[in-house]
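TL;DR need structure tokens for one chain.
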Amino acid sequence: MTSLKLCLATQLYHPYYAGGAMRYRSYLPGLRQRQICTEVFTSTPSQERTEKFRSGQANHQTQPGQLLPVETDQNSPVYRVQLAEERAWRRVMQYGQALVDFCQQLDTQPDVVQFLPLPPWSVPALQKLRRLHIPLAYAYNLINNPQRSLAGRLRQMAAKRLQFPLLDCIIVQSSVMAQTLRNEGVNGRIEIIPNGVDTVRFAPTSNTAAREIIRQSLNIEPMAPIILYVGAIEPRKGSDLLFDAWAKLAPEFPQAHLVLAGPRLDQSDPMLAHFHHRLEGIIDASGTRDRVHFVGRVGNVERYFQAADLFVFPSRREGLPNVIMEAMATGLPVVTTPFIGFADELGQPEEQFLLAEHDASHLYEQMRRVLLDENLQARLSRNGRIWATTHLDIENILDRYAALYRELAETAKQRN
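>> reply
TL;DR here they are.
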């Protein structure tokens, strides 16, 4: 099998936090096994972004438009262009031109370019890449909320009407996302490829010692129930709903602990100051400060899944959340909410997970139901693991990605 060169174009990439890029980063080794050689083209983040996610300092030593020394991530080259500290749309334009220049070089010219975010103001770069006869794909990772302002709505509409016809393929994670795009008038090619989960890394464990490592690090008793949440602490993820439900649950389960793994945007984003104070007020009023653990971003998140007894994800808007699939693959019972973007690809309520309304009382009831019913725990654990290994295993998903990239590249060759 001949190798194919894929350029993953994303303005934010490791070590800077971006959910979609984190997922595709986990795909790199598997794609390489399938002879899809990926090069990542990214940029320096704005100072505002680095402060928001507490992810270091922006680099101002290199001139805007210049490439930093090539990095290597999981044996894949990472090319990072320095962007100026300017307004977002100017940064998008500058990044787009740098990407075009990169794709014109013989030693880095890719067979396929896949975008992760595709912000407005990307049209000039897309048009220039089209003239290079490089097939363009876009991973549409999240159903966007309609903008409140007229100008914002017009930008959204113009972006789709101008950008999407320039793409060879839009990749979505679920049938719901595909239908949303169709309803918005998108007529081009849409491929549904669910997110993949590593069912070897995320798997149940009978090793009690491994399970206890996390508990000991948090000073949690071996038999105390752990309720786990993984994701950013922010309004979209429903953190406020989770804490309201926890405040109802905690008195009834005095040994239970709530563990939250993910960046605390409520602390680092000035726009979320009121939200932060509300969360802190709920914790203080519940008297459970010693039973709520913020552990930040963790590299061994599978250990947290294995150490927990219940996973709760009360989000309001998502694509196809990896964390739910990872919890299911680990055999951890899941309670989630019918977020915007919720799809059958995750399984069925009462079979693979429990579904709670966007209401603290109902979320509390569903969490309580799992903690009190061992038979329900066992059923959700078993069914979730079977669903993940049958429908969402990363090896099958990577096969589909590799086949799509090869088809796009071959079609482009025949066309030219």
